[in-house]
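Q: Structure tokens for this one, please.
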Amino acid sequence: MPEESYIGFFEQYLRDEKHVSTNTYMSYVRDVKQFSEYLDKNMEVPLENADRDIISGYIAWLQGAGKSPATLSRTLASLKNFYNFLLARGFADANPVHDISVEKAEKKLPQILTSAEVELLLDQPKCTDMKGYRDRAMLELLYATGIRVSELISLNIDDVKLSAGIIKCTTHGKERYIPMYSAAIRAVSDYINLVRGQMIADPAEQALFVNVNGERMTRQGFWKVLKHYQETAKINKDITPHTLRHSFAAHLLENGADIRSIQEMLGHADISSTQIYTQVVKKQLKDVYNKAHPRA
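A: Here is the predicted structure, written as tokens:
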């Protein structure tokens, strides 16, 4: 069977059976195609017959070309998935990648805002028009709950429980309930009660936050909103929607919240994903010490 067919079947499997995201299957397929081209030029070995030594040599070649540990790890993951697919379909006798590893990529600590920077950012939207009410509600809610931007724009009006001071967030079929502080409750309440009814295009619209056309807010739309207020606040950091999520978690940890509660609010399946904020807080304390201690 031609190598293009193996790769084509693999792409179809990822897309139609595994239902991975478009970015994931495109990355996997691109990595496998690049390995196939390497074999054609250097080895003249069919893709399905590549062994452990050939793949180890390919990874070493990529490393010599200056590829990062993150790229090498992703390439190995792509090839491992590809050969598992061939093995399951009877196109290969073994997976030559199963015991190959590379040095783990160094994890960068997430950037967070200081409490003063958060206050400055949240103070930017002015409630002088409908957009100002909406934007203040979105920013307050994002920092109050630490939800992802995808979760923010997916919220429906029924997901907000103002009397209880909580929101219901549903991701991958799993629900979690997250409390809001009083300023966020007030901002969301003002938006819902004073302006949302005038902004929606269809009375049956379920989306909590809508754009100027009265339809559900998009990721791109919210990104532009956030960038606008970063500029007006003159905060010299690259603020993304995830920056507020990171800041939410780190500030809770700084103020005594336990790591398990933060994990639950963030919706992390693995506690190790949440523990990164412990390192962030420790680094901040060390930075403060080095700047403030007279003998540091």
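A few notes: Residues 271-292 form the longest helix (22 residues). The chain has two domains: 3-88, 115-292.
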